[in-house]
Amino acid sequence: MKSKNETCDQKLKSDVKKEIKILIFGLIGALIMAVNIKSFVHAGGLYPGGFNGVTLLLQSIFENFFGITLPFTPISLILNAVPVAVSFLAIGKRFTVNTTVIIVATSIFTDIVPAIPITHDILLISIFGGIVNGIAVSLCLIGGTSTGGTDFIAVFFMEKKNTDVFNYILLGNAIVLIIAGILFGWDKALYSIIFQFTSTQMIHLLYQTHNKVTLFVVTDHPERVYEIIREVTHHSATELTATGMYSQQERGIIYSIVSRTEAKVVIRQVLESDPHAFVNVVKTDMFTGRFYMDDIH
């Protein structure tokens, strides 16, 4: 039997590991995004989605029409101020603070990373720049944070409403592209659509949290299984009591809905903890009710 101090120590170590993971994934994603902006986006004169695209558009407007060169960081931080405040109230304090760190890091990296164009072929820039951007965003989301701006909206709907809205955000970015097209030419705006579409598809490929499955775990150690599910997914579970018809022995059934990627980790750890457990995974297309993550608050 573990003492209360041992349990607290384990929880503290788990929280520290989680925060380190968030920071590492987020900073790598921020650096990749900054390099992408300086190497691909600037070279092609493109306008990526979200507030980064708005920031770049404002930089172009001030530089071309007023002869003023604005740094990336202050514009990005001002634009993200409102979403950060809303996220703090609607999504969670921990998630918002971590995302704010990534927003600041991305802005600073973008200002200090040297511009090294890899290619000047605008079609290649649109495709591969979009792929790299999707990888950067996905790294942040997988780590447990985001790149800010419209990602706050995406995370809110995924975690609170279990709805994937990345394609709707892509449509919302059309406003920025229309302005860019009117001011700087429609070719750049149309190539930016390719960039954003490629980025969105890359996020769908790498980030699978919105794809849910239902786990039914028949076990003699339901508490142990629940702790694994809680540790891996930060979601709760429901315990049912059942009787094995062949053995006539009473067993527990743990029922929980998790993401497809989380399910693989949970199943592996459950079978390591209880080799005699029986696990059934069912594809889940729709569900309603309270389904919030406890680690983003």
Description:
By secondary structure, this protein is α+β, with helices and mostly antiparallel strands. It contains 11 helices and 4 strands; from the N terminus they run αααααααααβαββαβ. It has helices at 4-44, 50-65, 72-90, 93-112, 122-143, 150-160, 166-172, 174-184, 186-206, 222-233, 260-273; strands at residues 212-219, 238-243, 250-259, 278-284. Strands 2-3-1-4 form a 4-stranded antiparallel beta sheet. Helix 8 (174-184) runs antiparallel to helix 9.
Number of strands: 4
**Structural Rg:** 22 Å
Please describe the biggest sheet, giving its number of strands, its sense, and whether it closes into a barrel.
Answer: 4 strands, antiparallel
Domains, number: 2
Report, as a whole number of angstroms, the end-to-end distance. Answer: 30 Å
| Sheet/helix structural class | alpha+beta
Average pLDDT number: 84
Number of helices, counting only DSSP H or I runs of 4 residues or more: 11
Helix content: 55-70%
Low-confidence stretches: none
Order of strands across the main sheet: 2-3-1-4
Please state roughly what percent of the residues sit in beta strands, choosing from under 5%, 5-15%, 15-25%, 25-35%, 35-45% or over 45%: 5-15%
The secondary-structure element order is HHHHHHHHHEHEEHE
Tell me, briefly, the overall form: elongated
What features would you highlight for this structure?
single chain, 297 residues, Alpha-Beta Plaits, 2 domains, membrane, YitT, transmembrane, YitT family protein, transmembrane helix
Helices and strands in order, then pairings?
Blueprint: H1 4-44, H2 50-65, H3 72-90, H4 93-112, H5 122-143, H6 150-160, H7 166-172, H8 174-184, H9 186-206, E1 212-219, H10 222-233, E2 238-243, E3 250-259, H11 260-273, E4 278-284
Antiparallel strand pairs: 1-3, 1-4, 2-3
Domain DUF2179: 235-288
Subcellular location: Cell membrane
Keywords: Cell membrane, Membrane, Transmembrane, Transmembrane helix
